[in-house]
Amino acid sequence: WKVLPQGFKNSPTLFDEALHHDLADFRIRHPSLILLQYMDDLLLAA
Prior knowledge:
It contains two helices and two strands, in the order H-H-E-E. It is an alpha+beta fold. Pfam families: RVT_1.
């Protein structure tokens, strides 16, 4: 998929899992940073 379907009840979960997977290397390289995911938002604290 290139986009998530609107109204699909599992879209937020699928997006969260994909984003967590994509950012895994970033989290490992920068362990002192705090990266919080909520729905389609990110909070990066350094």
